[in-house]
Amino acid sequence: QKGQLTNRQTAVDQYKSLIGNVRTAAQTLNAASTFQLVKAASSDSSVATITAGVGALPGVYDLAVSRLAQTHKLASAAQSGATTALNLSGTFLVNGKVITVQTNDSLTAIATKINEARAGVTASIINGGNGNTFLTITANSSGAENKVALSDVASGTVLSSLGFLSGAASIRKAITNGAESIAFAASVSTIGSLLNVTVPPSTIQINGTNVSVDFANDSLADLASRITANVPNVTATVVTAEHNGQTVYKLQIVGDAGTPTFVDENRVLENIGILQTAFGNELLAAQDAQFTLDGVSLTSASNTVTNVIAGATITLLKADPASPPRTTLSLTRDNEAIRTKVQALAEAYNAVVDFLKSAASFDSETLESGPLFGNSTVSLIQEQMARALLQSPGGVTGPYRNLLAIGVDFDSSGKMTLDSAKFNEALATNLKNVTDLFIETGRIDDPDIQFVSATSKTKPSGLVGYTVNITQIATQGTMTAGVAFTGTSSQEETLTFGGTLFGNTEYNLTVPAGTTIDTLIALINQDAKLKDLVVASKTASNELVLTSKKYGSPGDFTVKSSLPAASDNSGIGDSVINVTGLDVAGTINGEPATGSGQILKGDAGNPNTDGLSILVKGGATGNRGQLIFTKGAASVMEEALNAALDFVNGFLTSETNAIQAQIDDINDRVARIEENLQRREEFLRRQFNAMEEAMAALQAQSAQLASIMANISAQTRR
């Protein structure tokens, strides 16, 4: 009995594995993206190549490449050798990272120090022999934005002595009417501590006006405030950006009527990256790629371009500014890839059929049967899979009503077949119809309402559909400061954000002195974290307005200032302000639904719409139309197999547990029998031992009697 049960359990486990493969294939087909697969091609792959990913749409584009992106690369002057001491000492900065050189350092030692500083560059040695050795510095990323910033510190001359720098200084990174510094990790820490350098207090000139700079005590915010306050028609601000997932800070100096002029002292403007001394030996200039796509001029910091054609990646390979080489990029529907995924479902399904030929077989002559013969759970699952493949989903519109109409069929052995020609014709004729035969989908004639998702408990609506009635439109939380910001801030201010929108953790934004309402708005909207969560604006009377980027309760947030509300700060005040929005509200099919932001979801326990989720982007309240919800073959099959394979409550889990329970019961019975046998054996052994002892006693008595009888006989003879 145990052997039979073990065989059945093994067969169930094999069956579970096989229908798990069917479920995986069904899951792949229960996704709209599967039927949107696109293949990409370039007419001249020496100019550029293209690959298509998720979200790519068919299209044809003309590409002409005039310039490729380059990685900035600099070289020193020729040196005597790679390991020869250079007799140089001092400090210099590479992208804001300090490098200290000692007199016994060689080119190799300096290269090692640069690489250990992790300044976003790679230092290498080109050893051409005695007197022909070079140190090179190469940016780790291409594009103009990644131009290397090099500067000696204070009176240091290491870079100029090595030949990296030679000539006059000019603006390193120009912006509209101004210049921008390198990136810093903070805006309120002292510049000296951020750069880890010591520079004597200095005086720079901007448009001929003196501005004092003290790295030991000034932060970026302090310097920005001093420049704005002292230099007429010039504004300095600290802006934020995101770099490798971290917020960084940059100083921008902008003139009202053109780019200001700069006079440096002690190289402080070079050290913060506003100015850059000319490079002595620039092997490759930092430059962006330049190209046109269908006549539209575009640039990219990298030759791998991912943001100009949705879902596609272009790799630029060849360029010529005089006569840009051209290629035609084409994205076409990949019907073969779609057919392959349907064929994968057929192969997985057929593997189950083949397995059951032996596992669920019965021989009428020998009366022998497979371990799964007559198994009601297996029969139920097979019936559900077949029903899913043969159904005509209610609510699907178009010329094709079921999978049979697009080339899916079954042969005499019950195996699933696919007529490729018929299937490809259906894809070409009505892709949407074919897609709906496989996937779970919902549609409504309202541009502001979209189907999001459903669960196995959501029932198809049929062609009648489910009535969507909206009683409340979701809103974004917004607040207006109580006091207008009409002046220029005289002291630093900290704005503290929190609440659901911020994951219930606090986030601080430092607002430097010298800020106006406009610069505060820019500071918030450009902050690496805040820009994705809130939008700052102002009223006609200069009151700060903050609006959540998320709708309803998921977008709720709090905000407060470190200063009491006044006309020379944000006007928010030092008391916590709770900013809340409204969740969407309404019913689906007359059944209750719960809103979260713009998502309205049918309540658990609803007879028809349990788990049905829709996105309500706007519009009016009231009856918004009929949502037609359908479940295609892959969706129905996936749900059925999920129910069968559920690790806790699945049909096959229960089957396996039941078999194991029987095996455990047999094991218990065997254990009890063995225990009884052991007790019986011990009892019989005790009986045997007692019998042997009795026999031994009787034998002893017999011997004694024999001896007595012998003595009596002897005496009688005498």
How far is it from the N-terminal to the C-terminal residue, by CA?
A: 78 Å
* Mean pLDDT reading: 93
Q: Number of helical segments? A: 13
Beta strand %: 25-35%
- Counting DSSP E segments of at least 2 residues, the number of strands comes to 41
Main β-sheet, spatial strand arrangement: 27-41-29-37-38-39-40-28
Regions with little confidence, pLDDT below 50 for 5+ residues: none
Work out the radius of gyration: 41 Å
Helix content: 25-40%
Overall, the morphology is extended
The major sheet is characterized as: 8 strands, antiparallel
Structural class of the secondary structure composition? Answer: alpha+beta
Care to describe what's here?
The chain has an 8-stranded antiparallel sheet. The protein has a 5-stranded antiparallel sheet with strand order 1-24-3-20-21, with no helix packed on it. It contains 13 helices and 41 strands. The two termini are 78 Å apart. It has 718 residues and is an alpha+beta fold.
Can you give keywords for this protein?
alpha+beta; single chain; 718 residues; extended; 13 helices; 8-stranded antiparallel sheet
Short recap of the structure:
This protein has 718 residues and is α+β, with helices and mostly antiparallel strands.
List the topology elements:
Layout: H1 2-29, E1 38-42, E2 48-52, E3 59-67, E4 73-75, E5 90-94, E6 97-101, H2 107-116, E7 121-127, E8 133-139, E9 150-152, H3 158-162, E10 165-171, E11 174-175, E12 178-180, H4 191-195, E13 202-206, E14 209-213, H5 220-230, E15 234-243, E16 246-255, E17 262-263, H6 268-271, E18 275-279, E19 282-284, E20 289-293, E21 296-300, E22 304-305, E23 312-316, E24 326-333, H7 335-359, H8 376-390, E25 408-410, E26 416-418, H9 420-429, H10 431-438, E27 440-443, E28 449-453, E29 466-472, E30 476-480, E31 493-498, E32 507-511, H11 517-526, E33 534-538, E34 544-551, E35 557-561, E36 577-579, E37 585-588, E38 591-596, E39 599-602, E40 613-616, E41 622-631, H12 633-645, H13 651-717
Antiparallel strand pairs: 1-24, 2-23, 3-20, 3-24, 4-8, 4-19, 5-6, 5-9, 7-8, 10-18, 11-12, 12-16, 13-14, 13-17, 15-16, 20-21, 22-23, 25-26, 27-41, 28-40, 29-37, 29-41, 30-34, 31-32, 31-35, 33-34, 35-36, 37-38, 38-39, 39-40
Helix pairs in contact: 1-7, 1-12, 1-13, 8-12, 9-10
